[in-house]
Amino acid sequence: MSEDDDNSIERLDDVSFGRNADPVDLIRAVVPAEVMERFEVYSYRNAASVLANGFPDQFAAIISALGRFKITTRQIRTPGGSKSVIAKYVDTLFDEAWREMRISADLHVKLQPPKGMAIYSSYVREGFLDGHRIDFVNGRVALDLEWNSKDQTYDRDLYAFSAFYDAGAIDAGVIITRGPSLDNRFFRSLGKVLNKDGSDGTGDVYKKYGASTTWMGKLLYRLDAGRNSGCPVLAFGITPKCVADHAVRLPPPLPPTP
After folding, report:
1. pTM
2. 95-144 pLDDT, tens per residue?
């Protein structure tokens, strides 16, 4: 085993594969087959049904965006800044009805006897909720993209979903992220990162996409642990089938029968 291979191995006790997710048949009942073919899909707390039946317009917009979602190896190889080229591309898949939002709220506390409407004292805790942001919110549906951030970003996302949900601002959340099949082997096949002028750089692509960045196994670990609180969450994992110019590698043919 090479040193690079050894360094790519991470602890597996904070990785999961959806042991507490909803049955896949419930997802297949509402998510089109062509989307299931290109994405790895997980639903928690009946999120797929909640979205499809309770918010058909928003759900249709998400399915439409996923149907049009195609990235390139050049986009993957291009270094990101404050916002990656893939995040900027995803922005183009949603219309202006989907807006980035921040939630803030004050808490009005009343101390009362067990019965009756008398109030012994009351006060307001200003800024009880403040600063939680979500990439896209449309009505009562939230959506975040996590392409290549530190995996702790999922904690922030799920906490934001929970804050919006507990405040009655949303009824479900959606996360689009890298699926497990976009793995070390896939990124190794892409060679070097690109310089700003588009030429090959010196760094290896796979080193930019480590196991401690945002990918589905890290998200499912948090969802299986219930870090979304009561908020239903539907997760879509991007697979190599979403990469338009990545050749599908077939197994070698079997040798001829003597």
Report:
1. 0.86
2. 999 999 988 778 889 999 998 899 989 988 887 777 688 999 999 999 99
Contact 146, 157 (CB under 8 A): yes
3-state SS track over the chain: CCHHHHHCCCCCCCCCCCCCCCCHHHHHCCCCHHHHHHEEEEEECCHHHHHHHHCHHHHHHHHHHHHHCCECHHHHHCCCCCCCHHHHHHHCCCCCCCEEEEEEEEEEEEECCCCCCCCCEEEEEEEEEEEEEEEEEECCEEEEEECCCECCHHHHHHHHHHHHHHCCCCCEEEEEEECCCCCHHHHHCCCEEECCCCCEEEEEHHHHCCCCECEHHHHHHHHHCCCCCCCCEEEEEECHHHECCCCCCCCCCCCCCC
Distance CA 92, CA 169 (A): 24
Nearest to 151 by CA among 249, 16, 60: 16
Largest CA distance in the chain: 93
- Judge contact between 232 and 172, C-beta under 8 A: yes
Backbone angles phi, psi at 252, to 5 degrees: -60, 150
pLDDT tens for 194-215 read 998 889 899 999 999 988 999 9
Q: How many residues does the chain have?
A: 258
